[in-house]
Each structure stands twice: as structure tokens, then as C-alpha cells.
Amino acid sequence: MRRCVSVILFTCIFIFTSSYSHWTAVDSQYCPVMNTSGIRCVNRTLNSTLCTKEETMEGVNLKAIEVPVYSQNPWYLVGYSSGLEWKSYSCVKSPFVNSSGSTVHRKLLMRFAKTSSNAWDVDVLVKLQIAPCTITVNVTRTCQLARYTKVQPQYVLLSYNWDSFVLSEPLKSVEEQPLCSLWAKEPYKKAVPMSTYNYFLRLCKDPKNASYPASCE
């Protein structure tokens, strides 16, 4: 059996499964999205099958949100910590495949920097586990995934709203900034909202880039 070879890329495990949500808010159809020090507790907005009961948000001005359509949203890698950069790749994208309960399947598409066509050179299936009301995302390591990325078994959702999010490697200490990746939906891949971008700049180690490369279009 051939051994899997781990190769450093971006902190690529995305999320992915994000959806429409305001920074504070949800109506009675959804579990709450809580904003505390840049970290959000997200239930139904991450996966519509996870909410089992309603939770209250005393003193918070609730607003209606749009029906979640996260399951059909592709996410684009628009920024990352310099320690995660690999110049062999120029474009990274993650489209949704399917979901069942707390399990979400997405693809990780990557294009080599020297590729002249619009074809994707790497197409890897990723299996994600998202527990209710949590900021952690568990990733199933596979031979193919380990071959193209230095995947971690768990990631932390540092900041999230309906159009973009910041994903980091597990936090080792309060003093140490984590390595992160910044992801955005199609309409925001060239101009990430400042709310998310500011979290990326302040919380992550050596952040760089904040838009999807024009050469990837």
C-alpha cells in the first residue's frame, strides 16, 4: 500500500456549510447565532438538521434571517496566514456535495499556478462533522486529502456571517495567534466585508491577501 504523503497547503478545511445569517439575529424558526468576542455559536445556520429545540436570547434584538441556502454555496479561499502558503497552487474553491445529519461533504478544488486552462488539477472529497452549537469542525483524514494538504483533524470557526468566515487551526494558547484561512461566497470573493476581514487581520498570524485571484476567473 502506498503511503500517503502530507503536503503543506492552506488551512483548507472550510467550511464550508455556512449560510445566511446576520451578526446578531434570528427569528423563531432558528436557533440563535451568538456574538461573543468574535466567536459565534451557530446551530441551524450551519446545518439545518441540527437544531432540536429553541433557545432564547434575552435582551438581544432579534431580526429575521433569510432561509438557509448554505448547502448550495461554493466557498472561495481569499486569504490565509503566510505560514500556510504554497506557491504551487493559485486557486482554491470548495463546492457543496451533500449532507446528512451533522455530516457534510464538500469538495476541495485546487489549480496549479502554472495551469493555463480553467480546469481544476486537484479534486478531493472532504467529510466534515459539525456538532450543534459549536465553533469546532471535525475533519475525516483520508489518504487523498493527506496527499494534497496538511489537514488537521479539527478546526475552529473564529468568525462567521452569511457571506464570509475565518477558519483557524486549534488554538494552542491565548498568547499565540493561530494560522487561519479566510473564505467568502461568490459575490464577496473580491471584496470581503470589513467585519470579517478585521477579525482575520487581528486574530490570525501573518495574514495575507483578501481577495480571490483574478487569474482564477
TrEMBL record:
InterPro entries registered for this protein in UniProt? Calycin (IPR012674)
- Signal peptide boundaries: 1-19
Keywords of this protein's UniProt record, alphabetized?
Answer: Signal
Designated name of the protein: Lipocalin
Species: Rhipicephalus zambeziensis
